[in-house]
Amino acid sequence: MVEIRNLRKNYGKNPALRGITFTIEDNEILGFLGPNGVGKSTTMNIIAGYLPSTSGTVSVNGYDITEHAREAKKCIGYLPEIPPVYPDMRVEEYLTFCAGIKGIRRADTKKEVESAMEKLHITDMRRRLIRNLSKGYKQRVGFAQALLGNPKVLILDEPTVGLDPAQVSEVRSLIRELGQSHSIIFSSHILSEISAVCERVVIITKGEIRAIDTIENLEKSMTASSLLDITIEGDEATIMRVLKDIRGVEEIKNVTRTDNRLSCRLTLTEDKVRNAVMTSLVANNCSIVEMNMAKLDLEQVFLRVTAQSEKRTSLQDLLDETPDMPDNPYDAAE
What we know:
Elements: E1 2-11, E2 14-24, E3 29-33, H1 40-48, E4 55-60, E5 63-64, H2 69-74, E6 76-79, H3 91-101, H4 106-119, H5 135-147, E7 153-157, H6 165-178, E8 183-187, H7 191-197, E9 200-205, E10 208-214, H8 215-223, E11 227-233, H9 236-245, E12 249-258, E13 261-268, H10 273-283, E14 287-293, H11 298-306
């Protein structure tokens, strides 16, 4: 298990991380989401021991990453966003070199390298110079080095960048397989990818955590009383007039007309507005054919949670405004 407690990182006077706390459970694939420049890579670098924190602690399988760095790092396999490959080395040579750095016994090195190449389907590239590989294959080589030594914890920062759709599918399957015996923190800008392999997510913006929960619970909490899909039978002008006059209907969108039916999505201020919608439509001779509370997907949840707005929602504390922070803290004036 990985425990992150009150982690802070400052670049000069500019905070990149503002006291974040979360855990990665044993055999869990945790999605780590946030816009560019909000502290995702900084967090992953600190967890991996590549970057010191200003304050706070990171514990990997019981080892503090600062006080017991050697023991903690033995438990970690790290794939940064830009794979740390040496272009003038051949694939097998590079992986053998990495195995030596990780302290893998010489007697076990060949087996470890063969296993990693097989899992990432790069065995036929073993003699190729890394500089001559495509971006996708370089990404696979970087992933392979993260697997050397069978570390208990895997930190994967954009692991499918540069891969074609077939390769992406293979890597997703590999991550799901590894999640049965490893703790994995997985960052990606492709939210459908997170949905496909992760059950729980952390959403971070401006160096602060805004949400930690399962994807299912986040979707429910964001939509339980705000979006209503409705199909109504009746005169279109009358329907639109009635809906616009109902207090609590903030927005009407996705309006489509089929025969004598009108379908649309309503944004409501609160759950009880549904009753007002039903009563007003019936009173004006408009028949409700179908009505369902809409469900947001992860992408829509992400956009809502990270939206910069002073308006409170049902997730009040998660949507509070925080002071602006530059994408690159070094760019800010002292």
